Amino acid sequence: MTWVRAVQLVLLANAVPAFLVLSSFPGRTDDLFVWTVKPDASAQLLAAMYGNAALLTLLTLGRKAWAEIRVGFVVFTLFAFAATIVTFFHLDPFLAHPRYFFVYWLVNYFFLFLVTPYVFVREERAHGGRLPVAVPLARAPAVAAGLACLVAGIAMFVGPPAVNHVWPWEMTPLVARIIGVWLTALAAAFAWAVWDGDAARARPIVLQALPTAILVGIVPLAHTGDLTSGAGHWVIFLALVAALGVAGANGSRARVLSARSAGRASSR
Predict the structure, then answer these.
(1) CB within 8 A of 48, min separation 6: which ones?
(2) Could you tell me the pTM of the whole model?
(3) Going by fewer Cβ within 10 Å, which terminus of the chain is more open, N or C?
(4) C-alpha separations of 52 from 45, 86, 164, 208 in Å
């Protein structure tokens, strides 16, 4: 599991500083981040993405069995691969900043680009595949969350100007496609969890959903000046936040009920 831990630590080293900078100083990305992010609402949305990465890493970091980690690595693998490719299609925003920012970004993402798929394939061959289901997963909330992430992710991939007609604030091409990569990776992880069918193994992707819904949901509340008028701009956003929130709340409730049942059984 050495390489698994190495990937997790690199993810934390990348995600935690980015989350702190973007959430604390969304208006100062011109001198504190790898590229200038406008408007501030988009910087806050990127903070939610990095917060999600840190949370998902922490939810898998203490687990020793690959079966309990792999759903998180679905997100890590797809994001690392696709985000690195997106970078090279949008170089101008990176090159407008000091080169050491871009070097830092590339070192992190090249490591993840090369190592994460290797770790996923190696561990899945050795310890993965179709595994027995101990506690069935409640599939409906996971399916709804996955579909919401997929729809929002596709809209982001299409990018501006199209996405700006269906999102609460205007997105730039680089931010839209990075967010699209993230949401599509989450959709794939929810699909994996539904395919796997086991609630315990799906726990990381389910438990991250409610905090992620909160991080995304507070963005327009904190940046009302960036918002675009019109009800049509809110449909995808609200569906995404609601679906993630329901999936996360349902997963947390199921975990509490399972713990209570286990406690009663052990006391008999």
Answers:
(1) 212, 215, 216, 219
(2) 0.93
(3) C
(4) 11, 19, 23, 7
What is the b/e burial string over 86-106, where b = at least 16 CB atoms within 10 angstroms of the residue's CB?
A: bbeebeebbeebeeebbeebb
Give the tens place of pLDDT for each residue, 231-250.
999 999 999 999 999 999 99
Kindly report each contact of residues 56-59 with a partner whose C-beta sits within 8 Å and lies 24 or more positions away, as own/partner: 56/204, 56/205, 56/208, 57/8, 57/11, 57/12, 57/15, 58/12, 59/203, 59/204, 59/207, 59/208
Whether residue 206 contacts residue 248, with contact meaning beta carbons closer than 8 Å, is answered with yes
